[in-house]
Amino acid sequence: MQVLVDTSVWSLAFRKKTKTEHDLALINHLSQIIRDLRVVMIGPIRQEILSGISSESKFIEIQNTLSVFPNWPIETNDYELAAKFFNECRKHGIQGSHIDYLICSVASNNHFSILTLDDDFTLYKKHTGILLEREK
């Protein structure tokens, strides 16, 4: 199964200097799905990863690293499903960002799992049916 890797995981791998044992296990899992050619990238995640990098050299380094992952196309039905997910979750008192719901819809429409550190996705899962990737 292909895996849509959320910004939180990429940020851990690229930016965080001090890593816990759990962090290292997650990075090893990310490395494995990269080697298995199962990583999926979408433009909004690429933008989130690159946003806020103040060092031009670091920006270029990460931009070049990410360039091996082409953007998965986002279709009209992905945006429509993201809106449905937003509305459904909001009915149940769950708030989330538009990008989070877009990640959920792209994953759902294409039968991808999502690798994330963001606990909000566990809440979204209850009302969207998304699959969350768990490190092995």
3D architecture notes:
- The chain has 136 residues and is an alpha/beta fold.
- It has a single domain, classed as 3-Layer(aba) Sandwich (Rossmann fold), CATH 3.40.50.1010.
- It has helices spanning 7-14, 21-35, 43-50, 56-66, 76-91, 98-110, 120-128, and strands at 3-5, 39-40, 113-115, 131-132.
- Helix 1 (7-14) runs parallel beside helix 3 (43-50) and helix 5 (76-91) crosses helix 6 (98-110).
Secondary structure: elements and pairs:
Blueprint lengths: L2 E3 L1 H8 L6 H15 L3 E2 L2 H8 L5 H11 L9 H16 L6 H13 L2 E3 L4 H9 L2 E2 L4
Helix pairs in contact: 1-3, 5-6
Shape annotation:
globular
CATH superfamily: 5'-nuclease
Helix content: 55-70%
Highest-level CATH class: Alpha Beta
Compute the number of structural domains: 1
What is the string of helix and strand elements?
EHHEHHHHEHE
Strand content: 5-15%
- End-to-end separation in angstroms reads 14 Å
CATH architecture designation: 3-Layer(aba) Sandwich
Q: Can I get a quick summary?
A:
This protein has 136 residues and is an alpha/beta fold. It is built from 7 helices and 4 strands; from the N terminus they run βααβααααβαβ.
What features would you highlight for this structure?
7% strand; Rossmann fold; 7 helices; alpha/beta; 136 residues
